[in-house]
């Protein structure tokens, strides 16, 4: 497949539709980069299609939403973004296109090399190099607006990384349509690994790399493939101080336990994916994304970082600015999103369809706010709800 690898600047007049539900709210500046994601294969899902869950975390952030209009062969894209109050670059976003392709991401965690001041990646020649400013935050947008399937989206993202080089240290992308999902890990430069999520299994990933050794069918940059089938990807690029830290391990363990009914031993080498004990529903995922580890030895009842600096942060925490559960559907107008503007332990999930309208009876955001959320910046003749 020939891929257009040109990178354009994201500009859209009237792009942002402010929400009456106060999508901008204060967040205590304590911890960041604590996003948690789960993706369920269609045969493990109660809906028969891919299910996605994601908590967006970061200190000093607010959420904003927009609908990017179609044009020049590009699809309309729903955009939900985390932005720093203090300004600067955007730090996180999920995107969903009118063609039914979804992308969300997590920070991939710190890297293996340490020079006393900063972490870095091993030098691997041309695979460590970026062209000009490379590509970073724009990667998901440039791919999702063109792709018609999750696999095509992964191919476009890889082509852009190979052409321009990724300009951040690491990021895990969850790429999905209604029928299949992929995890794509990108490392600074032109390094990447991608794997299709098994249809009858579920993947949970916090803020660390999740690939150990390559499997048949994986997509990977040549520098990784050339190291052979026994090459330890996570060990070489990251190491156990990140992926075995309680900060990551307990998020892994508790989401699998709560949502999938699978209890993994702490400290074990966690698998890429597991087969759940039952078909997973949107409500199962919500329970996992809301948890403070209630009833567990490491339950967080009250946070005293000065008295207990080694406290294990829960999945739903004081820096969670949005929680999202997405029930994918082959018809994008039927794809249903459950979204909280705020911490899911405190705020009800609102239910809506970005390209299909508000579901009857939903009141979580308030009637006017959810109408604006669904309408965004669509032309009047394309709106699904009366303003």
Secondary structure layout:
Elements: E1 36-40, E2 51-57, E3 61-68, E4 77-84, E5 90-97, E6 102-107, E7 113-114, E8 119-120, H1 139-144, H2 150-164, E9 166-176, E10 181-189, E11 191-196, E12 202-205, E13 219-220, H3 222-225, H4 233-237, H5 240-243, H6 246-260, H7 282-290, E14 320-327, E15 336-341, E16 350-353, E17 357-358, H8 367-375
Helix pairs in contact: 6-7
Q: How would you characterize this protein structure?
A:
The protein is of the alpha+beta class and 387 residues long. It has one domain: Penicillin V Acylase, Chain A, CATH 3.60.60.10. It has eight helices and 17 strands. The strands form three sheets. The chain has an eight-stranded antiparallel β-sheet. Strands 12-1-2-14-15-16-17 form a seven-stranded antiparallel β-sheet, sandwiched between helices. Helix 6 packs antiparallel against helix 7.
CATH class: Alpha Beta
Q: Give me the number of helical elements.
A: 8
Poorly predicted runs of 5 or more residues:
1-32, 365-387
CA(first)-CA(last) distance: 42 Å
State the secondary-structure class.
Answer: alpha+beta
What would you give as the CATH superfamily? Penicillin V Acylase, Chain A
Strand order in the sheet with the most strands: 3-4-5-6-9-10-11-13
Number of strands: 17
Rg over C-alpha atoms, rounded to the nearest angstrom: 20 Å
Strand content: 25-35%
CATH topology-level fold name: Penicillin V Acylase, Chain A
* Biggest beta sheet summary: 8 strands, antiparallel
- The CATH architecture category equals 4-Layer Sandwich
């Amino acid at each position: 497949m020939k891929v257009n690898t040109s990178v354009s600047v994201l500009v859209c007049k009237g792009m942002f539709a402010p929400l009456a539900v106060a999508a901008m709210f204060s967040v205590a500046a304590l911890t960041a980069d604590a996003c948690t994601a789960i993706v369920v294969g269609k045969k493990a899902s109660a809906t028969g299609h891919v299910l996605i869950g994601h908590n967006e975390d970061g200190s000093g952030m607010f959420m904003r939403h927009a609908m990017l209009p179609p044009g020049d062969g590009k699809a309309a894209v729903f955009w939900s973004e985390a932005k720093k109050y203090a300004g600067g670059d955007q730090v996180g976003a999920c995107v969903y296109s009118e063609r039914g392709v979804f992308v969300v991401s997590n920070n991939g965690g710190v890297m293996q090399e340490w020079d006393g001041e900063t972490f870095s990646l091993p030098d691997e020649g041309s695979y460590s190099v970026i062209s000009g400013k490379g590509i970073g935050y724009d990667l998901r947008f440039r791919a999702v607006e063109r792709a018609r399937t999750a696999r095509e989206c992964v191919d476009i993202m890889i082509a852009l990384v190979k052409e321009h080089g990724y300009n951040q240290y690491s990021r895990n992308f969850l790429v999905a349509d209604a029928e299949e999902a992929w995890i794509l890990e990108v490392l600074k430069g032109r390094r990447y690994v991608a794997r299709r999520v098994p249809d009858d299994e579920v993947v949970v990933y916090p803020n660390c790399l999740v690939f150990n050794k390559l499997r048949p069918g994986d997509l990977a940059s040549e520098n990784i493939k050339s190291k052979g089938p026994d090459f330890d990807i996570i060990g070489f690029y990251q190491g156990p101080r990140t992926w075995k830290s309680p900060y990551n391990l307990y998020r892994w363990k508790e989401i699998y336990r709560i949502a999938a009914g699978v209890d993994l031993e702490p400290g074990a080498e966690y698998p890429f994916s597991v087969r759940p004990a039952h078909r997973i529903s949107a409500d199962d995922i919500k329970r996992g994304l809301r948890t403070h580890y209630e009833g567990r030895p490491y339950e967080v009842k009250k946070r005293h970082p000065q008295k207990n600096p080694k406290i294990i942060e829960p999945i739903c925490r004081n820096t969670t600015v949005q929680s999202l559960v997405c029930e994918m559907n082959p018809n994008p107008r039927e794809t249903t999103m459950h979204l909280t503007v705020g911490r899911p332990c405190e705020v009800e999930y609102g239910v809506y369809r970005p390209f299909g309208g508000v579901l009857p009876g939903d009141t979580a955001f308030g009637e006017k706010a959810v109408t604006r959320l669904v309408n965004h910046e669509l032309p009047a003749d394309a709106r699904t709800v009366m303003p």
